[in-house]
C-alpha cells in the first residue's frame, strides 16, 4: 500500500512587504492540497487567497475525509471543478460586501491526491509539476497572455520572459461570474514527487534548477525549504509558496 509524505511552506520573498499567497494541506482518506496567489497590485489579494483556500477545503471535505467513499475519476474531477466554482463565488461575494475589497482575486491550484491518482485543477499561473524517473514535467498550463502566444508559435519561451505582458493573466478567481478552470487526473506511483507552487518559485528558478533540487533533496520538508531559500537567493521578487508530495511504497504518512 503506497502512502504520501508531504510538506508545504510560504514566504514573503525579498521584494514584497507582505505575503498575498496562501496554501492549505488537508489529509484524511485522500490528500487535499491548495495553493493560492493573491493578485499583485489588486485590492486585498491576501484576503482573496485565504478565502479561496478555506472555500476549497470546505467544499472537498467529504471527499478528503472519506465520507464520499470510493469515487470514479470523473466524479472527483467534477467535485474539484465545483469546488473551484464555489471559491470563485465566495471571493466575489466577499468583495461585494466591502468597497475596500473591490477587484480582489487570486490564482488558484487545488488537488486531490490519493496513493495512485492525483486530480489537479487550476486557474491562473500557479503550477503543478511531477518529478518521475529523473524527468520533470509541468502538469498545468499557465493562463497568461504570453503562454497563449507561445502555444500559437508567436513567441519562444525565451522571448516570452522579456515580453511586456509577461505577467498578464487571462483567468483568475474572483474576477468573473463564470470561472473556467482546467482539470486533469494523472496516475502516480512510488518514487514520484509532485510539486505545487506559486509563480514566485518558478519565476526565480528554471526547470533545470527545480529538477536539481527535487532530485538531490530527499525528504519533502527540507525540499520545500531548499526551494524557497533558493528562490530567495535568486532574488525573491515575489511571494513564494511551495508544496512537495512524495509517493512512498509502504510506510506511514
For this entry, give a set of tags.
Phosphatase 2c, domain 1; 5-stranded antiparallel beta sheet; 253 residues; 33% helix; alpha+beta
Question: Overview of this structure, please?
Answer:
It is built from seven helices and ten strands. The protein is α+β, with helices and mostly antiparallel strands. The protein has one domain (2-249): PPM-type phosphatase domain (Phosphatase 2c, domain 1), CATH 3.60.40. A hairpin with a 2-residue loop joins strand 6 and strand 7 (135-138). The protein is globular, with a radius of gyration of 17 Å.
Helix/strand layout:
Elements: E1 2-11, E2 21-27, E3 31-38, H1 45-64, H2 73-97, E4 106-113, E5 117-123, E6 127-132, E7 135-138, H3 145-151, H4 157-160, E8 182-187, E9 193-197, H5 199-202, H6 207-216, H7 220-233, E10 240-249
Radius of gyration from the alpha-carbon trace, in angstroms? 17 Å
Mass-distribution shape: globular
Fraction of residues in H or I helices? 25-40%
Euclidean distance between termini CA atoms: 11 Å
Strand/helix succession? EEEHHEEEEHHEEHHHE
* Uncertain stretches: none
CATH overall fold name: Phosphatase 2c, domain 1
* Subunit arrangement of the protein: single chain
Amino acid at each position: 500500500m503506497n502512502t504520501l509524505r508531504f510538506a508545504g511552506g510560504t514566504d514573503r520573498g525579498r521584494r514584497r512587504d507582505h505575503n498575498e499567497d496562501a496554501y492549505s494541506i488537508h489529509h484524511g482518506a485522500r490528500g487535499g492540497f491548495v495553493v493560492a496567489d493573491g493578485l499583485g497590485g489588486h485590492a486585498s489579494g491576501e484576503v482573496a487567497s485565504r478565502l479561496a483556500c478555506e472555500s476549497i477545503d470546505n467544499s472537498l471535505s467529504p471527499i478528503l475525509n472519506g465520507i464520499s467513499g470510493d469515487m470514479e475519476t470523473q466524479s472527483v474531477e467534477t467535485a474539484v471543478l465545483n469546488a473551484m466554482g464555489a471559491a470563485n463565488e465566495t471571493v466575489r461575494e466577499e468583495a461585494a460586501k466591502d468597497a475596500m475589497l473591490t477587484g480582489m482575486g487570486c490564482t488558484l491550484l487545488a488537488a486531490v491526491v490519493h496513493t495512485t491518482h492525483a486530480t489537479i485543477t487550476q486557474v491562473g499561473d500557479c503550477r503543478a509539476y511531477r518529478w518521475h524517473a529523473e524527468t520533470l514535467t509541468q502538469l498545468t498550463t499557465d493562463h497568461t497572455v504570453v503562454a497563449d502566444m507561445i502555444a500559437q508559435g508567436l513567441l519562444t519561451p525565451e522571448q516570452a520572459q522579456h515580453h511586456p505582458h509577461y505577467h498578464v493573466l487571462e483567468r483568475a478567481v474572483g474576477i468573473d461570474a463564470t470561472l473556467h478552470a482546467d482539470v486533469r487526473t494523472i496516475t502516480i506511483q512510488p518514487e514520484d514527487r509532485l510539486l505545487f507552487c506559486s509563480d514566485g518559485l518558478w519565476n526565480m528558478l528554471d526547470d533545470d534548477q527545480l529538477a536539481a533540487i527535487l532530485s538531490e533533496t530527499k525528504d519533502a520538508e527540507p525540499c520545500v525549504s531548499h526551494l524557497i531559500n533558493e528562490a530567495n537567493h535568486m532574488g525573491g521578487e515575489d511571494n513564494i509558496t511551495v508544496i512537495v508530495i512524495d509517493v512512498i511504497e509502504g510506510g506511514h504518512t
